[in-house]
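Input record (Table S2, row 727):
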Amino acid sequence: MTERILSVLVEDKPGVLARVSSTISRRGFNISSLSVGPTNIEGRSKMTIVTELDAVEQVKKQLNKLINVIKIVELDPELTIETEVLLLKVSINKESQTSVIEKANLSNAKSVDVGQDYAIFELTGTSKDLDKFEKLMKPYGIIEMVRGGRIALQTTV
Amino acid sequence: MNKENLSGAELVVRSLEYLNISTVFGVPGGAILPAYDPLYDSPVRHVLARHEQGAGHMAEGYAQATGEIGVVIATSGPGATNLITSLANALMDSTPLLAITGQVATTSIGNDAFQEAYTVGLSMAATKHNYLVTKASEIPQVLKEAKYIATTGRPGPVLVDIPKDVLNEVSKWVEPGPINLPGYKPTLEPNPKMIQQAVELIKKSKKPILYIGGGVIHARAHKEIFELSTKYNIPVVTTLMGRGGFPDGNSLCLGMPGMHGNYTSTTSIQQSDLLIAIGVRFDDRVTANPDYFAQNAKVIHADIDPAEIGKVREAEVPIVGDAKSVVIGLIEMLGETVLDVNDWLEVISKMKNDFPLTYTQKDDGPLKVPFVLEEIQKLTKDEAIVVSGVGQHQMWISQHWKFEKPNTWLNSGGLGTMGYALPAAIGAKAAYPDRLVLALDGDGCFQMTCQELITASTENIPLKIVVFNNGNHGMVRQWQKIFYNNRFSASELTHHTPDYVKLAESMGAVGLRVSQKSEVKNVFEQMLEINDKPVLVDCVVDPEDMVFPMVPSGGSNDKILLSEKDLENL
Ligand SMILES: Cc1ncc(C[n+]2csc(CCOP(=O)(O)OP(=O)(O)O)c2C)c(N)n1
Ligand SMILES: [Mg+2]
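Output record (thiamine diphosphate complex):
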């Protein structure tokens, strides 16, 4: 399965996220990630949607029909900077503490909170980096984890 | 005038007047009540329906007959939920509709207040767009935008939900400004390169078919289609929604293709080398299994909605644009081209001869719907606006009625909504009081919205309705015969209950009944003579009759069942 990333510029109006997600589920499209946030332009938000290659044309066309969707750009995988953020809470004890922190450091994860029996790390990177880090932490016992959804920009205009 | 203090409700009614809306259909209730007060004095006519679904279909019938927007008003909660079927219906058939609903006060929204429903959420997937208005001053602009969205591009329903406190809020009339919708700019003019590519394919084609649908009617492109077909001798198939887009009386017209299409229409597509598809969406009722659909044909697909192109069938030449502009472009570029289609026309004319639509009406046998239709049409001289329900009768009408003009055939094609016919006919007759409006309904369908006959009589909308009384959900029975071994689970209605004549009379209409061939002419003449009241004809017909041709769903259009005899080979 090949992925495609869509960058969707929308009007920042109430219900716009509901419209987009309702269209996606109504049409039975598979998406693996959706994130929303403000842009540098007032009144405009941007959604980043990751979907499959074979669905991408219909996803684009159906979303384009929504009145509040202004523009959809399919990002060129070669020219795309992509990132995602992760917060991960892992158990620690006296024996594991050093190796957990060492592995986190090697992964470029930042420790944002350390307690007696847990540590919370923050990591920003590609989805693959985040997957890898999750795997590394798994043996120590992940208590909770949250990922922010993938966001992306194209390097050329 | 700008200084005048107006309530949100007054702004609603003024906006309707400003937008040249002359008739609205609806049912009042608590949350929308403020809007009904100024409506009382307004020149805008309000038709009081007996159910909001009916009101919605009335607005649809009005819109489909006129090509203008239809307007429906309902209250919050159950009023809005009752509307949903008609919104979904309008979305499927691309009918321009404006629905205005009352909502509980903004301070109560989200608290499960009395008659609160999340109307914007509930209608999201049943509308082209919807709004929740939060300030009275925004009402004129929002209603202008709503009408614009409903009527432009691919038309559809737009809902505007207005909380009661906003209807009561005092504001000023703010003249609506220009439309500014950065995310909505329908493409009307086709790309000339695409037109050129299409013309190249047309010139090479030996077996072209013009495949036209509802988009041609919405774009009012029937004259251009007529020229394209008759100038270059291209045969035309008209989908269920496209009936009337090309005159049935013309020898190039092949009629409806698909599941219950006639043999020639369906088969000519299968044999064609080029489909010129305009304002159609390759619906499954037309294509059957798309893998076997028109396998030897290249496709030119023109539609105003880019999402329709390539959705079901890849197009060699995709054209986004308004049907009328597209066809004008094609004709201009084809110029004096003469297509090499004589052999093709001969093949088609032979098919027409060899496989006509047939039925047998015995003198003393039960009435057959196709026979009755032909008799009615003889008496009405092609003047009627015909409105249908959903089921066997609908398919027979589409097969046997000769449509000569657009907007004279109203039916629920995409959603297949039983109960559509009577209220839609009321809407059409409200738009054209001087025209003959004929609802040709099934007995099952009629029972879904028959209370609207009261609307017709009390509002002085003297339409005519023929109830094809086969005592059954005939189409369901037909499937049970073919696919469920004659096990007629829940499809029987009985011929006798209700007594349609008495029902009509009790609702202020005239009731007539016909069940014999010898009475047919007489009874329908009587029906046509009465013009001061609605008339209902209880037309008792054969419960065992089945609609053919038929292609079972998911099958191949190469395997058409022509009559009951073919069922043995299933
Ligand atoms: C609202 C709704 N419910 C159920 C159906 C399924 N359905 C399709 S046709 C049909 C029977 C229609 O019966 P009738 O109006 O008597 O028409 P006939 O087929 O007998 O001509 C039914 C139940 C439907 N299309 N719409
Ligand atoms: Mg029936």
